[in-house]
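help with this.
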Amino acid sequence: MTEKLPVPAEPPERSRQSGRIPEREAADTGGAQRAGTPPEGRSRAATDTPPGEAVSAGHPPYLPPTPPSPLYAGAYPYKPSLPDLRREPPSTVNTDVLWAALATGVLSMVLLNDGMGANLFLVALPAAVTAYFAARQAGRVQARPWTLAWGIGGLALLLVPAVRAAQWPSLLAVATAIGLASLALHGSRTWSGVVLSPLGLLDSLPKGARWGWRGVRTRAGNASGSLGSALRALAVTAVLLLVFGALFAGADAAFADLLSRMVPDTSVGDGPWRLVLFALGVFGALAAAHTAAAPLRWDSLKTSPGRARGRAEWALPLLVLCVLFAVFNAIQLAVLFGGYKAVLDKTGQTYSEYARQGFWQLLFATLLTLLVIVFALRWAPRGGPGDRNLVRGVLGTLCALTLVVVASAVRRMGMYVEAYGLTRLRISVVTVELWLGLVILLIMAAGVWGTRWLPRAVAASAAAVALAFGLASPDGLIAENNVRRYEKTHNFDLDYARGLSADAVPALDRLREPMRSCVLGPLAKGLGPATASWYETSWGEVRARRILKERPPTTTDPGTCFTSGESTEYDR
């Protein structure tokens, strides 16, 4: 019988946290864990060497270093580094992912040439399908409610450019849609995940391109015959469509007109730009696919809470702040019910000056209050139920008083709009103030039902406000308000109205002549002829063209335009 020789033990590695050799660590603990004895809580099978290999006496088996136990989280803080946040994607790209990315690139090249409309939504559809195929390949097949909400909300935001002609709310909607797409791909739940998720898309741009290129090379080497046949089929299809499409277009003018509207007009000069759009579509779809297959785990980034303060040290500044808020709100309520005349006589201010002075201060006060709440929660006392009740009571009172400040700020802006009219700046800051009030309500609800859902709820509220803001047509609301004001006061800012988008045409069409032609004439020239394709034209622009075609503006003397309305003071 031959004697089995012992296998030499692996060289001992130093511990990841302490830098000491594991054998010495075992000796320092009093020999509680002897050589060859499995650690507490682990079975012998977990520490056995592979079959056929023996362990020499007196030498413990080699175990790879592992993160420290949560029991010693205070002694050995373990924070994942950036490489630890990334899941490993599948080794090869699924064929469905590659075809969906190719479709995204083709649609980007064809549709995203000039203007925003339904084209963004049409390009986003195959990109979403690309991400779905990649997630399914990686095993992320379970669609959670929040993921569906982010995805549907992002696609809905991309409909804003298709409905409204104004670019500034459309750009806000597109930026918000990208943020929701990053949340849908990462599945983040915490504040760090909600804030940092868009960075995951940027991180996936080069990695997704390399991942897709490796998949193309693998499939080209394994199935060169099928790839060549597919390319030949596409070439034959393109030739047939080109030849017969040209023949049918020459045979019928109606078909030629329909074909010209559906198919974009391309030229040799547009070739480089079309290639850039194709590359952007493909790389963007592959970045979304790579993120869906291997999302960055931003939720694993944890921030330790601040050192808990004593009750008196923590509560005294906040209680004094609550008293200050209460005094201010009491004065606001007294002015509201008692009238502004006495206050204006005492301060010497005009009605508009009083309104304008207060809004911006109250807006900054709301923002600072949210910052105070964040730091107060970080250093709040955490001794037991009594401390929790104290925190809820003090911060709940501060939030309730802040809601009164929000209402006062909105009322101040309403007074200023009555005096000087509505502008893009004013409607934007009022929307922000109302959203801050909604965030405060969510914070108050989190104090009752817990904070686990709060980060995603705040993100969802921001997306909902951006969607409602875009669909409500801000330029249309501005024109509607200022036309109503003109009917009462006969004051109107012609220059500002001419700078609005086509969304304002239905409201401006109600003006009497010659004011109507003075405003709509420059807007009609800005629209120009209807040469854009259907996917690059918004519904607001189509409606404006129809109104201007039915009632075209008449040619008026410039002097008549300046005397028909009085220019007012605007903050642009």
